[in-house]
User: Fold this.
Amino acid sequence: MSGRVVDRADFGSLFDALIRRGHTVIGPALRDGSIVYQELHGVDDLPIGWGDDQSPGSYRLVPRQDGALFGYAVGQHSWKQFLYPPHTTLFEVARIDGALHFTASDEVEKSFAFLGVRACELAAIAIQDRVFPGDRTYQGRRGRLVNIAVNCMVAGGTCFCVSMETGPRCTSGYDLVLTEVLGPDRHEFVFEPGSDVGEEILSELPGRPASDSDLGRVDQIVESTASSMGRAMDTSGIKELLYANLEHPRWDEVAARCLACTNCTLVCPTCFCSTTEDTAGLDGTVATRSRRWDSCFTMDFSTLHGHPVRESTRSRYRQWMTHKLASWYDQFGTSGCVGCGRCITWCPVGIDITEEVAAIRASGATR
Assistant:
């Protein structure tokens, strides 16, 4: 099936189709002064008529006058939390009649439908597919996932997906992709399928077939967004650049500002550091091993034999940035950065990864 145009008044039919298939719909919603991802039950749960203003260390919602459903850039939440939860029970151990019995977590996996996935976020999910090929929790949730993606109609002040070749157009990894089209006399959504599942869902939606004019309008919206990126990063030879500058004085300059608060790693859609914890009941009959998110910015994360390998903030920031933009290529064959800009927006002191790369490149020589 080719594309289909659905009127704003009929957008709720998408929710009906997803819920009828047994999916839990997760998407954007307003909460505590920001746009977050949570379970949605209908169109009214979406952040209707809201946009955002983002810059280094700054985020605020701003009202729109057009009633757009997807007129904002990404917030601090990523889809990672639903596929790779912040806390996961791995197994339990019970002492029964003097013997130890191990039981793997028997979590009932939900069938998620993600609504509003941006191109950079599809790229992040594809990266995590490489990171977690054998992870039972991740693969159990990933295998049931339906992705309803959105071509971005606006670029945030910290976005640089064009530099990372991850957006703003969704090109793969989705079941359906929609583009919101706003005008003086219309508010429509151009849907395009990306899988057999997407075609089945699209066949149940009201509307009309997309014309060449409709698809041309999609191209215009995407091109306009691409030309208004808030940031840019020169990625040419970036792996070699960072490997050759591990002792560059810029690392000291950024460390003087960095709080090692872990915000950048927690909002990043691809960071995957974790630690394990063991807990036991007071009576000694049951113990549990769990996995929770961690960060390479914490002192304990690199501790070996009672001493942290990366003791200074300088070394921890360098580890994070060089892993994200250089050694990630060695591990997974791709960059670990998708250009979403979250680490810039949600850094309390406004450290900008694009500026850090530019500063090292501008030195003109290794140090």
